[in-house]
Structure to design on (243 residues):
């Protein structure tokens, strides 16, 4: 039987991570932001918005040629081998694309409970586990701060981690943080004492400590880093806030 905890034997013992989140229109913008942070954060999340499930569309939906070249291994993601890439798939039909993101070099993939055919996407990844044996890609499920925990029931024993959105509308950086996310994390930590929990959206240094105390292991941060006058200083400040 698939063990959802096998990747994270004791997540509470590991240091809390700040993960820069990149939401870009073009591949060159992805490259630019990765160049900025790659020496300071070993993991990054790339937000993938299709313009249908969420708006507006982002890379690679807006720039398919660059992504196709990566999928075909004509060239790799920038700093691949140095960084671990997580793709947050805010797609209406993720089952159509999920294999392609695995081939592109994902180490983690996030699927949203409200996507159409999301269970098919999970099944695709489960099939890859069975085909590949020791499957290297961790799979997470994302829920809104207004969702009840029962939205996770169809995915039980399939996910490696849970992503709680800190904002009410996915796919847009710079939105205000919804404090309900803190309570959702608390409830999830009680239900899943050993599972990795991350929060994405609206996270700033003002909320970081409360989220960690509630049980979050990873904080995904976009605009508070890349929207700052000094992104590296903002990243360092966030990293200090959770230590």
């Amino acid at each position: 039987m698939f063990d959802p905890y096998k990747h994270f034997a004791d997540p509470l013992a590991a240091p809390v991570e700040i993960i820069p989140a990149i939401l870009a229109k073009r591949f060159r913008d992805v490259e630019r932001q990765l160049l900025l942070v790659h020496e300071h954060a070993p993991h990054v999340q790339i937000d993938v918005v299709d313009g249908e499930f969420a708006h507006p569309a982002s890379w690679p939906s807006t720039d398919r040629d660059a992504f196709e070249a990566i999928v075909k291994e004509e060239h790799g993601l920038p700093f691949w081998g140095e960084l671990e890439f997580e793709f947050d798939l805010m797609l209406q039909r993720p089952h159509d694309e999920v294999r392609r993101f695995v081939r592109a070099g994902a180490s983690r993939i996030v699927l949203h409970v409200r996507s159409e055919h999301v269970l098919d996407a999970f099944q695709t990844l489960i099939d890859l586990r069975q085909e590949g044996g020791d499957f290297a890609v961790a799979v997470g499920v994302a829920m809104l701060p207004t969702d009840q925990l029962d939205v996770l029931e169809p995915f039980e024993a399939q996910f490696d981690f849970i992503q709680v959105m800190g904002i009410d509308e996915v796919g847009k950086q710079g939105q205000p943080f919804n404090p309900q996310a803190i309570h959702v994390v608390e409830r999830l930590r009680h239900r899943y004492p050993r599972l990795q929990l991350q929060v994405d959206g609206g996270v700033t240094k003002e909320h970081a400590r409360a989220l960690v105390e509630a049980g979050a292991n990873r904080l995904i941060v976009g605009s508070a880093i890349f929207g700052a006058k000094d992104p590296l200083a903002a990243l360092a400040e966030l990293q200090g806030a959770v230590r």
The beta strands are 17-22, 43-49, 84-90, 106-112, 138-143, 161-165, 196-200, 218-221. Helices lie at 27-37, 64-71, 98-104, 118-132, 180-191, 205-214, 223-226, 231-241.
